[in-house]
Amino acid sequence: MSLFELECFESFTVSLPGVSLVDQWGSRVAKVSDRVFTLLRLTSPDLHSLVFKCPRESFIVLTGIEGVKQAPYFAKRQWVCVSKEAGLSDGELDAYLRRSYQLVASWPDKENSSRIG
After folding, report:
1. Cβ atoms of residues 27 and 36 within 8 Å
2. d(CA 59, CA 56)
3. N or C end of the chain, less CB within 10 A?
4. CB-based burial of residue 45 (10 Å sphere; 0-12 exposed, 13-18 middle, 19+ buried)?
5. Does residue 116 have a pLDDT over 70?
6. For position 99, what pLDDT does the model report?
């Protein structure tokens, strides 16, 4: 099965600690600590594309691949939108989604970050 399929996407994302799923923006959205780390777009024009956060180096590499572009509304913070046609393997997508999860999960807590410093 592919992470572009809803059942596989849900199964994979909820296997990660503390993940919740919501329907938002015409997508199935996976969150950790109430923060988006990936989503499966289910509506046109990007039918069944994955959106996720990535490190700067990965962003540069990924956006050089046909079928991968800056994610609308997320782009200024290294988010990509990957279509099925991009040709990334399930293993590569798995690794990118795990990295996105780690990046977002490591962000400071909003409530406590204002108390730091």
Report:
1. no
2. 5
3. C
4. exposed
5. no
6. 97
State how far the Cα of 94 lies from the Cα of 2, in Å rounded to an integer: 10
Dihedral sign, CA of 47, 48, 54, 60?
negative
Residue type, 45: P
pLDDT digits (tens, 9 = 90+) for 20-69: 999 998 899 999 999 999 999 887 554 679 999 999 999 999 999 999 99
Q: Rounded to 5 degrees, what are φ and ψ at 88?
A: -75, 140
Give me 27's structure tokens.
């997508």
Sign of CA dihedral 75, 77, 78, 84: negative
- The tokens for 19 are 């993940």
Task: Please enumerate in sequence order all residues whose Cβ is within 8 A of that of 35, keeping only pairs 6 or more positions apart, or say none.
Answer: 104, 107
- In 3D space, the residue among 97, 99, 84 whose CA is nearest the CA of residue 13 turns out to be 97
Query: Which pTM does this prediction carry?
Result: 0.86
